[in-house]
Write a structure and sequence with these properties.
Elements (H helix, E strand, L loop, with lengths): L8 H5 L20 H15 L4 E6 L5 H14 L3 E5 L6 H11 L8 H17 L4 E5 L7 H10 L11 E6 L2 H6 L5 H4 L2 E7 L4 H17 L4 E2 L1 H11 L3 H15 L6 E2 L1 H11 L10 H28 L9 H13 L1 H17 L6 H6 L3 H13 L2 E5 L12 H4 L1 E6 L2 E7 L5 E2 L7 H12 L13 H13 L7 E2 L1 H8 L8
Parallel strand pairs: 1-4, 1-5, 2-3, 3-4, 6-7
Antiparallel strand pairs: 8-10, 9-10, 11-12
Amino acid sequence: MSEHGTLPVHLQALGFHRNPFPQTPDADCYFRTEEIAQHSLEAFHCLRAGKGFVLMTGEVGTGKSTFLRSLMDELHHADCAVSFVFNTFLQGRDLLLALNRDFGLAPGSDFAQDIDLLNHYLIEQYAAGRCCVLVIDDAQNLNSESLELLRLLSNLETRQNKLLQIVLSGQPELLDLLEKKEIRQLTSRIVQHIQRWPFTREECERYVNFRISKAGNDGRIVLSKMANWALHWYSKGNPRKIHAIMDRCLYGIAPGLKQTIGVGLLASGVREVGISQKKNWRAPIWISACLALVLTASWFWSGPHGAVSSVASATPLNGISKELSSVATAEKSSASPQENSVPRSLACLRQFGLENLHSDLEHGLDAFKRRSIVRDLSTQGFALAFVPAGLRLPDSLDTATHRVCLSLGRAGTWVLWKSAMAPFDLHRGLVSDQVKWLQERLTDNKLYSDELDGVYGRRTIDALHQFQRWHGLATEDRVDAWQLFLLEHEFGKVTS
């Protein structure tokens, strides 16, 4: 059993240690686009600075709840007191009691005493320098009584700051509620409005690769280019739909332990989960011709058996036909750069006397062997990093200048270099040379300007987490090999 519960047999067979596409919010494996990272950073600072309301709206399944859980994790790490109300069937005083209960307050004798208890608690926390945040999900279900309660809570303040910060998240109907004249005082206090949009086609592909890699498969399972296009078309970039489709696709490849999800299997998965598209094309003959091209391409690339298994059950891919023909050529030719890079990477490893690692790095490592190799390399002063799924090597990377070995192997893109430091874990209050080294690197990145004292405190934590967000990484109190790579080289700078 994994830490996330019993894992289905088909996912275990594919090498996963957690479900890559669960149907519930999963903040432990949060994918951040540049826009999401920026929204998260701004929301965090708004709440920590006591500026008032943060509003988030988006359609069903666009990742609002996951965003909230990730934000709450950051608030908890910053020692904020957080109340999370996800059941908005609680209205009026019941909503207030739920808030007080999360803050450890017992029910009062009536509504007035409940407010008084909360006010005293908020004043105590403010005096101790601690922020208090109320987060409400599905806020479009709040009634007039509850909105009036929020207006009342927003009036709890000192001379300069609000005592309670509020985050409202909901579907677009929430905007209609907030336009009511009687709560305009509440609406006027919104300092940030986050709108969650579906993923673009590129973000959709990065998202799937990221989820698969983070779940323990190390990017060995991939979608063909046409399958990626089809996934975005059918899901419209909606994360919840992406999860539903990909869950069926993984179930489909498990019996044969296949490594590539083709367009036929993906279309079959779409049909099984009941996702359909409106027919808005007027050229069924043209679509059929393009699908014939898909079948032919699958035959030549995968062989007759692969073509039958991956396409036989496919449904028409209305709307993406134009793009498929152009993608076919790109997909067929994409193998050449990878093949050409092999001799160069082998020659590079040979300079360091590490040529014996080449085969493993090119063809894949299980988790145990990877840890063993990384540990052995560390004793020799080397570091090995695999580029996280959905990210890429910096454009300014020069292997000669930076003394770096790299390859786009079948196990994923990897980089190996002489490193002054090994990956390390951190915790608040830690004093070490590693922390001082980190502070120096963050100073170079213009993210840290405090004393280089080697203490992992609030300012160092904030700077590291900002560095991680900027690079599309999950915030954590750890510097892994990929972060070492970015920090140790000039291209790791995130500001000009």
